[in-house]
Write a sequence for this structure.
């Protein structure tokens, strides 16, 4: 893929699409492309994270437990795995395994921080979007709490 293709792929992500084109160009330029074979493990549940992965082609199974059961979710081209890891260190909540030959773009948290430091408008747009998401999550959580109290679940 060309740099412009990578930029376009990044721009289609809801959160990353808020960044200006120059910031996306820097992020795309610093991204690392990895090729996986079917069955290759991208990362395991419980491992520390240092960034996110954007699926370019193929499919990745996401599993919460390594118990032989089917995947909890399968994601394909355009999916961003580990979005929060772009901003903070977290343990991976799932194991990610390529289901078929797959290409991913690795986006490092250190690069994201550097890019946002050089692009205050992009940083502000992302901060506002994350705040909006957090507000919506809190509202949904309050509604669940209200519903549970209504049926007297303790």
């Amino acid at each position: 893929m060309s740099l412009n293709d990578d930029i376009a792929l990044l721009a289609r992500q809801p959160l990353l699409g808020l960044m200006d084109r120059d910031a996306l160009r820097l992020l795309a330029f610093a991204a690392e492309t990895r090729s996986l074979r079917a069955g290759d493990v991208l990362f395991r549940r419980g491992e520390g994270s240092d960034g996110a992965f954007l699926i370019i082609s193929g499919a990745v199974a996401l599993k919460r437990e390594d118990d032989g059961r089917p995947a909890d979710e399968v994601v394909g081209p355009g999916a961003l795995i580990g979005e929060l890891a772009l901003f903070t260190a977290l343990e991976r909540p799932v194991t990610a395994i390529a289901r078929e030959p797959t290409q991913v773009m690795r986006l490092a948290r250190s690069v994201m921080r550097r890019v946002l430091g050089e692009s205050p408008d992009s940083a502000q747009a992302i901060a506002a979007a994350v705040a909006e998401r957090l507000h919506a999550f809190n509202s949904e959580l309050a509604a669940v709490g209200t519903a549970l109290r209504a049926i007297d679940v303790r």
Summary: The mean pLDDT is 92. The chain has four helices and eight strands.
